[in-house]
Amino acid sequence: MSKSDAELHQACTARFIELANAMAKEGIASPVVSAGLMSASGLYATYIVAGNEGGLNESGVDKVTAAYRLQLEQVQKVKKEQYEKRSGD
Questions:
Q1: Chunked mean pLDDT (size 10), the chain, 89 residues
Q2: How would DSSP label each residue in 35-79?
Q3: What is the dihedral of CA 52, 66, 10, 31, to 10 degrees?
Q4: Are 50 and 56 in contact (CB under 8 A)?
Q5: CA distances in angstroms from 59 to 10, 17, 18, 39, listed in the order given
Q6: How far apart are CA 24 and CA 62, in angstroms?
Q7: CA 53 centroid distance within chain
């Protein structure tokens, strides 16, 4: 049975968090780790949209920015729901 996109998404996210935590344990400051992950993600997003040879024009930047915003909103919604569930117990 193959994994769904949602399951693969969760697994990828967990792997990136594990890597970030390992970097932090190596003594790299959390803001630096976060900035590095954001830069890597931005580079990869640019590659997905424009390939190896191109960069994003303004509309491409807007599309990637909107995708990041949506992901951040979803993460915050889940975190809020988890907090409310823990607080209600």
A1: 87 96 98 96 91 88 93 94 85
A2: HHHHHHHHHHHHHHHHTTT----HHHHHHHHHHHHHHHHHHHHHH
A3: 80
A4: yes
A5: 28, 30, 33, 19
A6: 31
A7: 23
